[in-house]
Amino acid sequence: MLKLEDYHHQDPTWCRGCGLYGLFSAFKKVAFSLKIKPEKMSIISGIGCHGRLNSYFNAYGFHSLHGRTLPIAQGVKLANTQLSVVAVSGDGDAYSIGLGHFIHSLRRNVDMTYIVVNNRIYGLTQGQTSPTSRMNFVSPSTPYGSKEQPLEGLQMALAAGGSFIARGFSGAPQQLASLITAGMKHKGFSLVEVLSPCVTHNKIDTYQLFKSVIFDVDKDPNYDPTNKNKAWKIFSRHGDKLPVGLIYKETRPSFEEQSLPGRKPLAFLDLVPEAGKIEKILEKFE
Ligand SMILES: Cc1ncc(C[n+]2csc(CCOP(=O)(O)OP(=O)(O)O)c2C)c(N)n1
Ligand code: SF4
User: Fold this and answer.
1) Tens digit of pLDDT for each residue in 30-48?
2) Rounded CA gap, 179 and 34, in Å?
3) Closest-lying ligand to the alpha carbon of 14?
4) What is the pTM of this model?
5) What is the domain count for the chain?
6) Residues spanned by the domain of 210
7) Atom 1 of ligand 1 has which residue's CA nearest to it?
8) CATH at residue 133
């Protein structure tokens, strides 16, 4: 019988009060409630403060490269379709250096979950401006204030063909857990962005600030998350306010349902490397 503590591998060393604690706690509850065995789960993280999540969580994992979280996670899933695969990125990892992978993963629709921890800053590297930082945001990389429009990752995800798009807040861990649970049950690529304050480097986007700008579409009886037009409009309807909840969901075949029907994934093939073949390959590199 699995217990909640079985998912806790190590005590985190994130700064006290960091939003990542809310995500860590919500995520452990999700794995526990879905009864996923740690050996049946793989967490692939990028480089950044968020990247430590897979070391603290008891499951298989890969602390990968900055911006390359998604290709690795999709490779893991396609090689072993029986694993629950969750990738974790920061807003820099996902929307800056990894943006190309983000767009193509959404349209590809591999059955996995992608958690993007949005603290509107580069946390690990000491607080530089990120693609989601607000206009005029002052940081070591923009001492005169950022002059670039912040990017709305979820609206971009909708345009790129995302099949499950949601946003939670680390200050509301119950809703966050239910969104991640729904994402993990979704048959396809599920994106869950988490608004997550960086209490050390971002003194603007605090818990109070996020609380004051979010509105919850889950509480709106007139909101229909299967209606793409409504989902599109929700981003611009409320000015600077940010929607949270399940923003969009559609049912369509996953990448592996279409590309691997009836075929064994790599992890289940009886592959025996032949010495002769490997030597020939090595000769090419001599
Ligand atoms: C290819 C590459 N470029 C740059 C870096 C330096 N770097 C490490 S983490 C990071 C940004 C981290 O910000 P984010 O992805 O938002 O994660 P957070 O630390 O906020 O969780 C950068 C630029 C790197 N490690 N590798
Ligand atoms: S630097 Fe910011 S994001 Fe990183 S652990 Fe500290 S509070 Fe969290």
Assistant:
1) 999 999 999 999 999 999 9
2) 13
3) 2
4) 0.95
5) 1
6) 4-284
7) 66
8) 3.40.50.970
